[in-house]
Amino acid sequence: MNANDYITDPCKASSLPYWKTENIVMPEHIIVLRDDDYNKEQPARNDDQYFKMIHNLKMIPDAFLPDDFEVVQADVKFFADYIK
Question: How many domains are there within the chain?
Fold first, then answer.
């Protein structure tokens, strides 16, 4: 998979987040399939299904920020103090 395919249609390019696809070695006993690649008549192994939410990136609402919203530069100490 290349990054352009993922940016264009992330849910079709990979069943996993891009960083996982690029950085994690999948154990031999695990296969990750897209739903449209799964054949329930011929399961590959002992199949445990789970789901991943799909977003087609076509209906992204505008973000509305409060009037007092501001962008600031912050360091780790600022965040640590803020989160506590």
Answer: 1
Distance CA 39, CA 31 (A): 13
- CA atoms of 8 and 13, how far apart (whole Å): 8
pTM score of the predicted model:
0.32
Cα angle 32-39-54, degrees, rounded to a multiple of 5:
50
Separation between Cα atoms, residue 36 and residue 49, nearest integer Å: 13
Domain encompassing residue 51: 1-84
Tokens describing residue 74? 């912050």
| pLDDT string in tens for the chain (84-residue length) | 677 777 777 767 666 777 777 787 878 877 777 777 777 676 666 666 666 667 777 888 888 999 999 888 889 999 898 888
Question: Whole-angstrom Cα distance, residue 9 to residue 7?
Answer: 6
